[in-house]
Amino acid sequence: MNGNIHSVTSCSTVDGPGIRYVVFMQGCNLKCKYCHNPDTWNLSIENIIEEDKLVEKILRCKEYINSSNGGVTFSGGEPLLQIEFLLRVCKKLKENNIHISIDTAGNIDITDKLKELLGYVDLVLLDIKEVGREKHFKLTGSYNDKIMIFLKYLNSINKSIWIRSVYIPGVTNPLDLCNNDDIKQIKSVQKVEVLPYHELGKYKWEELGLKYELNNILIPTKEECGSLSNKIMEYIKYNI
Question: How far apart are CA 21 and CA 18, in angstroms?
Fold first, then answer.
């Protein structure tokens, strides 16, 4: 079976634990105003790879990713738009004892195929854009109803989660996570990462002829984001 990917990187340290082989899947069903990879949105742009070829590429890196307690992260775009392909690849990776992470916004229906896929996934990096329904629509072009259902499902199966949220001063407030009843119920959050907004992908919007709306935004520091991450994680631990 073939999958549609955007790109890969074989030595990431920011997409889950250890050294990660990251597969960026093509296609996304959100249109985040701060997205630094808008070139991954269009599913009709094809960079096709056969499942066995991708598995072969990943296994070439098995020694050093396993020695660092790393693994593979499927990101995007939105990787869960290609569940059938991921399921076939993940089955083969698990046969080779590879740690698997999915970096997703969770804007997807809960299907039997998704449930089966998550059985092979060790860690979900859940990108929570906004907890407010209307704010989420304004920021991403989509309501977050499916995302909240996805979050509840992850909690019901006790799936390990890293919560990720981008801090855009004047636009998003990651501390709003502490006021969401669904997030308060999560028992399996291992880590919270508040990521600083940046403009590194702004040029891609211009190249694609898209209007970039987030101008004159103050770039938050790593220290600010680290402090917010700690506050949210402590709150979640306190409420478990």
Answer: 10
